[in-house]
Amino acid sequence: MKTIKLNNGVEMPVLGYGVFLVNSEECERCALDAIEVGYRLIDTAQAYYNEDGVGRAIEKCGVPRNELFITTKVWISNAGEEKAFRSIGESLRKLKTDYIDLLLIHQPFGDYYGTYRAMERAYRDGMVRAIGLSNFYDARFVDLVENVEVKPSVLQLETHVFSQQKRMRELINDYGMHLMAWGPLAQGSDRLFTDETLKAIGTKYGKTNAQVALKFLTSEGIVAIPKSIHKDRMASNFNIADFELTEEDKETIRRMDTGKLKVDFNDPDMARYLLEYDKKFNPNS
User: Fold this and answer.
1) Residue list, annotated binding site for substrate
2) Mind telling me the catalytic residues?
């Protein structure tokens, strides 16, 4: 498995498996399938309410813990230094592990400065190997990064061939950070799976549109975490190591970038939705 080196020296797989919108019971089976296929990076979050399913898979998979790379994220309702720190301990318990490989602030809302201090504390205590951010943009991103002691290693954003985050990639490069793509297959959009440009490139290598899209991201040094509940599709998404895109291929795909995102985190309605998220989706609320 190809890896990248984070700014603190930690090695991270460039291709992983995401479990967004997978319930806890099914998540165990999906994570086990993904690990059997060959994935070693599993991306979950407190707000996915399936960390325990990932934990059961970690416990049962038979792969040594140090060969896995587990990412989770602190949710808005756990924002603030003490509350966030307690929630990190709870994530460790659910994940059935002594440490988290990468811990992110999930959303730039609430007391995320306090949350970041909690993550720095967890990092220094050996509970976490690397820390970072998710869905932070522009001035808010710069303000946080310029005012913390432990610099973040990763920024996770919506990223795919139609929205390649070129501007944010340039910005985070100044801090030695890596981009991690959520929604790397444009959130399952038919537009990606039927795109004629990707199809033409894939035909040369005997690869699908999805495989070409994932290969492009990873070849650009972007960590991709595609999701599927079907083992055959997990395997197909994982099967991208046996071909290389030419520079001409990559330049063609770069021209597909529209810069348009499906989710706008500067939208007040989106902020209100996220702040009320727990009340709507927490199965224990």
Assistant:
1) 106
2) 48
